[in-house]
């Protein structure tokens, strides 16, 4: 984490000392070890079978005591005996009460305690102080250089990384503003000459949390030492699952009907439903076997000439975008937000400004006289409407236009990407160039498939009797609000 002497590398524990540390602190191992696979040391540490394992054995491969689990509850418990941690969480207000805020702040404090150039007494040593020293420096896209991030032009990852960096900057600014009044923080974190904490440190604790936090039943999002050393494999390649036992301990178990030979890796899934963009964003890699982007989120905006734009934005409770996903044989899309875009006042959407009981004013929406209590459910109302095919055609056309716009971004940037890679003079690493190139290819292929299928859908919907009748009325300048197109 925090650099020694501000110039040297991070202070780290060798992975060979991980198991002694874990066992000393109550972790139980059965049939596994932590370390690199022979011949694949560059992949880092993973969970490896030390004997032939079978699900029929019905025993946990590892049991991590709950006091080693880094969760919101764990941080709050630690703060009761650590004055410095309590000071930090209180200074951070609401952010310090969230899981993310509490865990990131805790990690930063542990790195401070572990730094040999900072005097002892900056916090209470705990087993997790040593745990931080085992965590590798995560090279997620938030650490890519500006030139490397330019390789992402046209992909859905580029705006995601830019938004994340802006969010991290705001958090870091808030962290400094709220804690610089704390004497030891002012000296060891923020002092121009003696301070150690930089924006890179905040990015690093964020990367540690994002890439290692798992959702445990009964615990929530948490970092669980040892379990978080297991690598990802999707589908049938997933060997093990993680959960919590009746005592709140974290455990790792082989999945049903799974067997692992001695010396082979034991994998878990980070989420089979995650697309290429999210895998690269959160974990910094793409599986070699990944042959589809799987899912993409394209942002979408309500047109500026929509007279109801402000009101629609005010009531919307859905993400302003479209989710394009691969169904194997075909593609599909979903978006609650889209259905608000494709209807207007002439269709039956109305807005009123109402005064609440406490004197505030709020916007309420209605659809053909019925109050729209949940805007995300508008699709269900539209499906039951005789004009459903018309709304569906509008939505399909808008989605296709957005897919086409994204494809244009990808195609238009190809020459720039080629020139950047040809003239980068070593500023772009081969690994990052390869990851960015694969993401571009996977997203392009998914978008091209989606575009073609949306075109087919448009043609099919346009041939429905309802749409034909609607277009005929429009061409004649006839009002359609009261017509029955069923």
TrEMBL record:
Coiled coil: none annotated. It comes from the Eukaryota. Signal peptide: none annotated. GO terms for cellular component: nucleus. InterPro entries: SET_dom_sf, SETD3_SETD6_MTase. One of its GO terms (molecular function) is protein-lysine N-methyltransferase activity. This is SET domain-containing protein.
């Amino acid at each position: 984490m925090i650099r020694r002497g501000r110039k040297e590398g991070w202070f780290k524990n060798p992975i060979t000392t991980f198991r002694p540390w874990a066992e000393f602190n109550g972790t139980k191992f059965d049939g596994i070890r932590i370390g690199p696979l022979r011949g694949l040391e560059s992949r880092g540490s993973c969970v490896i079978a030390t004997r032939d394992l079978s699900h029929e054995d019905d025993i946990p491969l590892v049991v991590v005591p709950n006091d080693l689990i880094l969760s919101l509850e764990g941080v709050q418990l630690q703060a009761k005996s650590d004055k410095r941690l309590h000071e930090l969480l209180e200074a951070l207000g609401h952010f310090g009460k969230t899981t993310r805020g509490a865990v990131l702040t805790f990690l930063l404090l542990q790195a401070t305690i572990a730094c040999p150039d900072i005097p002892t007494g900056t916090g209470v040593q705990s087993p997790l102080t040593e745990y931080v020293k085992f965590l590798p420096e995560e090279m997620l896209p938030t650490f890519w250089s500006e030139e490397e991030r330019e390789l992402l032009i046209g992909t859905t990852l580029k705006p995601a990384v830019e938004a994340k960096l802006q969010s991290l900057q705001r958090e870091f600014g808030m962290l400094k503003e709220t804690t610089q009044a704390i004497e030891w923080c002012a000296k060891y974190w923020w002092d121009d000459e003696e301070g150690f904490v930089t924006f890179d440190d905040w990015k690093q604790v964020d990367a540690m949390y994002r890439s290692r936090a798992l959702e445990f039943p009964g615990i929530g999002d948490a970092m669980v030492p040892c379990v978080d050393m297991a690598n990802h494999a999707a589908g049938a390649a997933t060997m093990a699952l993680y959960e919590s036992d009746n005592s709140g301990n974290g455990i790792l178990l082989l999945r049903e009907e799974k067997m692992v030979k001695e010396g082979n890796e034991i994998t878990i899934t980070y989420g089979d439903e995650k697309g290429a963009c999210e895998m690269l964003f959160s974990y910094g890699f793409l599986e070699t076997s990944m042959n589809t982007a799987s899912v993409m989120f394209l942002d979408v905006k309500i047109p500026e000439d929509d007279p109801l734009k402000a009101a629609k934005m005010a009531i919307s409770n859905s993400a302003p975008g479209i989710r394009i996903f691969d169904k194997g044989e075909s593609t599909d899309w979903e978006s609650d937000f889209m259905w608000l875009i494709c209807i207007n006042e002439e269709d039956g959407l109305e807005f009123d400004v109402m005064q609440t009981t406490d004197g505030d004013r709020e916007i309420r929406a209605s659809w053909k006289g019925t109050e729209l209590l949940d805007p995300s459910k508008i699709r269900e109302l539209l499906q039951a409407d005789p004009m459903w095919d018309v709304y569906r055609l509008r939505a399909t056309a808008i989605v296709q236009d957005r897919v086409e716009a994204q494809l244009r971004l990808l195609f238009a940037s190809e020459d720039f990407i080629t020139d950047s890679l040809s003239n980068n003079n070593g500023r772009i690493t081969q690994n990052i160039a390869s990851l960015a190139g694969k993401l571009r290819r996977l997203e392009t292929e998914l978008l091209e498939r989606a575009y073609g299928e949306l075109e087919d859908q448009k043609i099919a919907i346009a041939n429905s009797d309802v749409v034909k009748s609607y277009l005929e009325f429009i061409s004649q300048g006839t009002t359609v609000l009261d017509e029955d197109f069923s």
